[in-house]
Amino acid sequence: MNPLRITRRSFLKATAATAAAGPFVRAHTARAQDAGEKLNIAVVGTQNQAWWNITQIADENIVALCDVDANYLARAGEQFPGAARYRDFRIMLEKEEKKIDAVLVAAPDHIHAPASVMAMRLGKHVYCEKPLAHSVWETRLMAKLAREKNLATQLGTQIHAGGNYRRVVELIQSGAIGPVRQVHVWCNKSWSNGRYKFGSSAPAHLDWDLWLGPSAKRPYSEGVHPANWRRYWDWGTGTLGDMACHHMDLAHWALDLRHPTNVRALGPAVHEVGTPDGMIVHYEHPARGDKPPVNVTWYDGPNRPSILQALRTKDGAPLQWGDGQIFVGDEGMLIADYGRHLLLPEEKFADYARPEPYIPDSIGHHAEWIVACKTGSATTCNFDYSGALTETVLLGNVAFRVGRALQWDAANLKVTNAPEADQYIRPEFRQGWEL
Predict the structure, then answer these.
(1) How many angstroms separate the CA atoms of 240 and 190, rounded?
(2) What residues does 342 pair with on adjacent strands?
(3) Count of CB atoms within 10 A of residue 361's CB?
(4) pLDDT tens readout for residues 84-99
(5) Is the model more confident about 88 or about 2?
(6) φ, ψ at 413 (rounded to 5°)
(7) Model confidence over 374-406: pLDDT tens digits?
(8) Nearest 5 degrees, angle CA 149-CA 12-CA 409?
(9) Beta 406-409 vs 262-266: how paired, if at all?
């Protein structure tokens, strides 16, 4: 039986429960362990962000390394000489199954789901870099498997572990600025304008066919590996997919957001190959209990919310702020980024009595996952929470590519007003890579 395959019927049945789950999921261990025993971890991807991830878990046992780039694999192998080395993660997981407890996935976006899905079907805990997957359907499948197998999972939104996000969540949830009905989120990065550059051969150290994985078979395209794949629809998800899981995370956490009901995207003309140089995406979220509906708007590239222009410091000077988000409440605003936040207008909140911190400090984003693998404790960016976050993010790309506002039926994983969106919700997978 192919460990990557699943039927649509069983998938939709199981995801109905997943969609209603809360943000914290308990995990169990893949094999009996105590908290002091080291995990045996296999790694998919070994350089750049992947290497940084490896350094965060290096106190555990790195037992297997996988990379389609032989140079990268050799470099990582020098640091972990006892680890088995593979070019194909499928072979690694099959051959090392009995040894592995957990898998870290930090390859390009289009590999996230295939590697994570196979690992989870084998009962392995998974840490996966953001975005959780390359398509909406894959994110839902990953959340389903994590819940079904009761595994410890974590998305690589490392800033979630910082103290600043916790203090913002406490302020919003304690009602500091009243009910929140609008959030503006922006990022000046621009992964864009990817174009195929055919005509040359892949370097000897790169297995291009393995690099393509589940995507359509194409000739080698120069300049894609190792980083610029983010600019291509085939393999990446543009600026939105790369950065929104970091920045929109704060709104989802603070406001208990999950699935939007309507998504609309604005930007340049759609190119069939490359992602755009800037988008504005509007997400409409329904009321949640006594919380009102919320409109979340994302801006990337050169785009910025107009509300920024009106913000002033307490001295009357224009407020200088980089990437971040603004929560607009009935009684004030809160602006934040990764490391700081400010209640606005400043003069109104000068003597505001902040709530006592009630969200515990994180032991570290990777450490949360390691401990969860061993003890069954909770992780804050498990695949249930981060799956809904990633699904929301990726729907922005779908709306952009379809060119119309989408009505999203989360329960049935369906755009109800645009059947042409189906190809982007659940794309085709190359033979041998079907999930």
Answers:
(1) 9
(2) 335
(3) 10
(4) 999 999 999 999 999 9
(5) 88
(6) 50, 55
(7) 999 999 999 999 999 999 999 999 999 999 999
(8) 125
(9) antiparallel
CB contact at 8 A, 30 and 151: yes
β-bridge pairing 294-300 and 180-187:
parallel
Token pair in block for residue 373: 């693998």
Strands in 84-86's sheet, in edge-to-edge order, are: 84-86, 61-66, 40-44, 102-105, 125-128, 153-155
Backbone angles phi, psi at 275, to 5 degrees: -75, 160
SS3 track for 254-296: HHCCCCCCEEEEECCCCCCCECCCCCEEEEEECCECCECCEEE
Look over the chain and give the mean of its residue pLDDT values, rounded to a whole number: 92
The string of pLDDT tens digits covering residues 337-362 is 999 999 999 999 999 999 999 999 99
Q: Does pTM surpass 0.90?
A: yes
Burial of 195 (0-12, 13-18, 19+ CB in 10 A): exposed
Kindly indicate the confidence band of residue 315, based on its pLDDT and cuts at 50, 70 and 90.
confident
Q: Which two tokens stand for residue 104?
A: 């870290």
Please state the length of the chain: 435
Q: 121 Cβ partners below 8 Å, 6+ apart? A: 3, 4, 145, 149
DSSP letters spanning 103-152:
EEE-S-HHHHHHHHHHHHHTT-EEEEPSSS-SSHHHHHHHHHHHHHHT--
The C-alpha atoms of residue 43 and residue 30 are separated, in whole angstroms, by 17
pLDDT in tens, 103-118: 999 999 999 999 999 9
| Phi, psi dihedral angles at 299 (to 5 degrees) | -135, 130
For residue 46, the 8-state DSSP code is -
Measured between its terminal Cα atoms, the distance across the chain in Å is 12
Tokens found for residue 308: 């920024």
Helix axes of 383-402 and 136-149: crossing angle, nearest 10 degrees:
170
- Statement: residue 78 has pLDDT above 70: yes
Residues 231 and 275 sit within 8 Å (Cβ to Cβ): yes
What is the rounded CA–CA span in Å between residue 144 and residue 326?
32
